[in-house]
């Protein structure tokens, strides 16, 4: 039923756009399609679809993060869970034998505000012959590598983060490197990478094998060093305010203003014939109905990891008098529905059935550099419908 309704609605729209008896040619409908897809990309903040050559396994951290902030449909579980609206992950480009890392941040827009940056390193199990080492803890420090030609220091580096780590532990260690990333964003050429130094509690440089981190060169993809950026691109929704309490009281007053004879509106033949006719009179009241957006059908399944699609919902139905509280009318809509019902002024239609609460969705996708990005988009799902 719904599918049929959608198809006939789109046919209506297409036929209405062209002169009568002229159906769109293949070329014209292709143009409409590409213009529509381009506009849809703009909604997702992109000029072109990212070129993803080979599907890689997204980092587990990003998958876990996505599942924490979004439900299966991609809808945000809790809008206050993420500080900004974008999380970007980068793999190390250096693959150095030393504990040095470099990340290419060219895909981050200049306008993006860096809220937090984290270096994620996978600490490996200590090598067997070191199991009986007298060291139980080591001091692990992360430095930003500075340009030696610009300072007089013999060791041009800046301490970003430092802490004690048990020698026998294994798993992910996270270091905050926000300062360094902010300076790289301000001046791309200053990005010379990060350097990790491990010292014993006595302060001397520890044996390289005492605490080892997985590198992109020798270890499994799932353990690769990673930089995670929490940013905000500044896109905000015009939040819809809920003032339903006012609606209710005003609705009550408006109803009391109506003519006392209940037959004067509904059963009046002349009023009805002036209205939308029998069909409209029988149409269901304003309500929320499903509308599934399938990324595979749009041709985006190559670069979107999750979700495969989402239910945007749509609002459909009549907003004729009397507007119940369940139709969440604005005061304006209530008055308009009364004017329409009373036929006080010609040409005043019933209010429109539109989304009055919107939710954000999350997209986990590969960008042009094949980095995995999680982004939140506001106002994508109709949470409820109302007469406005
Ligand atoms: C960073 O990546 C971009 C796009 O892939 C590339 O054009 C640029 O040369 C890279 N920069 C460095 C320093 O590797
Ligand atoms: C480096 O040292 C030279 C002289 O040794 C001095 O003139 C210069 O200002 C110093 N530069 C910085 C950045 O400290």
Mean pLDDT: 82
Order the strands across the largest sheet as they lie in space.
6-3-8-1-15-14-11
Main sheet specs: 7 strands, antiparallel
Report the CATH architecture of the largest domain: Ribbon
Q: Give the CA-based shape.
A: elongated
Low-confidence stretches: 1-20, 238-281
Helix content: 25-40%
How are the SSEs placed, and which strands pair?
Elements: H1 2-17, H2 26-43, H3 60-69, E1 86-91, E2 100-101, E3 113-123, E4 137-145, E5 157-166, E6 171-176, H4 178-186, E7 194-199, E8 226-232, H5 244-256, H6 263-266, H7 269-274, H8 278-282, E9 287-289, E10 292-294, H9 295-298, E11 304-306, E12 309-311, E13 314-316, H10 331-342, E14 353-366, E15 372-387
Antiparallel strand pairs: 1-8, 1-15, 2-7, 3-6, 3-8, 4-5, 4-7, 9-13, 10-12, 11-14, 14-15
Helix pairs in contact: 5-10
List keywords for this structure.
single chain; alpha+beta; Cystine Knot Cytokines, subunit B; 2 domains; 7-stranded antiparallel beta sheet; 4-stranded antiparallel beta sheet; 10 helices; binds 2-acetamido-2-deoxy-beta-D-glucopyranose; secreted; cytokine activity; TGF-b_C
Explain this structure.
The structure is a single chain. The protein has 388 residues and is α+β, with helices and mostly antiparallel strands. The chain has two domains: 2-51 and 236-387, Ribbon (Cystine Knot Cytokines, subunit B); 86-232, Jelly Rolls (Sandwich), CATH 2.60.120. Helices cover 25% and strands 26% of the residues. It has ten helices and 15 strands. The strands form four sheets. The chain has a seven-stranded antiparallel sheet with strand order 6-3-8-1-15-14-11, sandwiched between helices. The chain has a four-stranded antiparallel sheet with strand order 2-7-4-5, with helices on one face. A hairpin with a 5-residue loop joins strand 14 (353-366) and strand 15 (372-387). It is elongated. The chain binds 2-acetamido-2-deoxy-beta-D-glucopyranose (2 copies).
């Amino acid at each position: 039923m719904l599918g049929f309704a959608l198809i006939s609605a789109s046919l209506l729209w297409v036929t209405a756009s062209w002169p009568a008896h002229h159906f769109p040619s293949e070329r014209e409908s292709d143009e409409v399609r590409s213009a529509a897809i381009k506009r849809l990309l703009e909604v997702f903040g992109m000029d072109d679809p990212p070129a993803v050559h080979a599907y890689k396994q997204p980092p587990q951290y990003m998958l876990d993060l996505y599942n924490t902030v979004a439900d299966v449909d991609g809808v945000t579980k809790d809008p206050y869970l993420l500080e900004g609206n974008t999380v970007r992950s980068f793999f190390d480009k250096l693959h150095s034998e030393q504990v040095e890392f470099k990340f290419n941040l060219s895909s981050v827009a200049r306008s993006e505000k860096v809220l937090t940056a984290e270096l994620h390193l996978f600490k490996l199990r200590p090598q067997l012959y070191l199991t009986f080492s007298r060291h139980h803890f080591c001091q692990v420090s992360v430095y930003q590598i500075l340009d030696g030609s610009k300072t007089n220091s013999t060791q041009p580096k800046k301490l970003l983060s430092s802490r004690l780590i048990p020698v026998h532990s294994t798993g992910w260690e996270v270091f905050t490197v926000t300062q360094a990333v902010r300076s790289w964003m301000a001046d791309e050429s200053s990005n010379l990478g990060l350097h990790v130094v491990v010292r014993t509690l006595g302060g001397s440089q520890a044996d390289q094998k005492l605490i080892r981190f997985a590198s992109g060169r020798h270890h499994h993809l799932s353990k690769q060093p990673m930089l995670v950026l929490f940013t905000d691109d500044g896109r905000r929704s015009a939040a819809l305010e809920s003032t339903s309490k006012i609606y209710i009281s005003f609705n009550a007053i408006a109803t009391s203003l109506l003519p006392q004879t209940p037959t004067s509106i509904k059963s009046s033949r002349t009023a009805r014939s002036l209205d939308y006719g029998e069909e409209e009179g029988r149409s269901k009241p304003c309500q929320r109905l499903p509308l599934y957006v399938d990324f595979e059908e749009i041709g985006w399944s190559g670069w979107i990891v999750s979700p495969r699609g989402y239910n945007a919902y749509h609002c459909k139905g009549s907003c004729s008098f009397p507007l119940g509280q369940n139709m969440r009318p604005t005061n304006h809509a209530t008055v308009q529905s009364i004017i329409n019902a009373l036929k006080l002024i010609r040409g005043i239609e019933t209010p429109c059935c539109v989304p009055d609460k919107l939710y954000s969705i999350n997209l986990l996708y590969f960008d042009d550099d094949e980095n995995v990005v999680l982004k939140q988009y506001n106002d994508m799902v109709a949470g409820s419908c109302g007469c406005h």
